[in-house]
Design goal:
The protein is an alpha+beta fold and 239 residues long. It is built from three helices and 15 strands.
Length: 239
């Protein structure tokens, strides 16, 4: 009789342990959160990517680090993070949470996969505007306003991304894209005119006035072609 009680007790104990294990497994599975977002990389600094949502009109900017992250190409083969360049459309897999900051930050990234490649519009303009200054940033004036003319080319989201990236690169400077008020006294102005936009070619000019009244505005005229998803200068003139 005592032996049967011991056997019964052991059977009950095994069943309870089994149920507890199943319950833990179920909780682990249901608490796992995952999501995917399609992003367009517009700028890259080291291992940090700045991206926008190409399907949204909201001027939101996102940032994520490539350090230690698994990166895959369009064939879903693992590649180096150096493969990712501005203009690429990527699918970011993360834990479902986005940190409330600016730029917004993805939480718990577990995979970044390349899906497509476009022209590197923002990155290209950052390089061309910064190239108008001797040290790729203004030496004195820290107030700059950027306006666009000619053919509508950059989206509002891309313009705001350009504004933020130039502010970050030009330490201490205030950069405003398409200001709504009259030009601030003493501020420099950058006029970007898109004159001829085709599927794979672009003609534009960049006019920089430092706002001092002592120097004449400088103009850069560029003709660029799009090769493998990147704008490449084919003709250049600086006045």
């Amino acid at each position: 009789m005592q032996k049967q009680r011991i056997i019964s007790f052991l059977l009950v104990l095994v069943m309870l342990l089994s149920l507890t294990s199943c319950k833990k497994k179920s909780l682990t599975q249901t608490s796992s959160v995952s999501a995917k977002r399609h992003m367009e990389i517009v700028y890259k600094r080291g291992q940090t990517c700045y991206a926008i949502d190409p399907e949204s009109d909201e001027p939101s900017l996102y940032v994520f680090s490539l350090a230690g992250q698994p990166v895959f190409d369009q064939d879903d083969s693992p590649v180096s993070s150096t493969t990712l360049v501005p203009g690429m459309l990527v699918e970011v897999s993360y834990d479902g949470y986005i940190l409330d900051s600016y730029p917004s930050q993805f939480s718990g990234i577990n995979k970044i996969a390349v899906r497509e490649r476009r022209a590197n519009n923002v990155d290209f303009l950052v390089a061309q505007i910064s190239g108008m200054f001797p040290s790729t940033k203004p030496d004195e004036n820290n107030l700059w306003e950027i306006a666009f003319g000619g053919t509508t080319y950059l989206t509002h989201v891309e313009q705001k991304a350009l504004e933020y990236i130039l502010r970050e690169n030009w330490t201490g400077a205030t950069v405003t894209v398409e200001p709504q008020e009259e030009k601030a006294f003493g501020s420099g102005s950058i006029q970007v005119n898109f004159m001829d936009i085709q599927d794979d070619t672009m003609e534009l000019e960049i006019i920089v006035d430092d706002g001092s009244g002592e120097n004449l505005p400088e103009t850069k005229r560029i003709i660029a072609s799009c090769a493998t998803g990147s704008w490449v200068i084919t003709e250049y003139e600086r006045i």
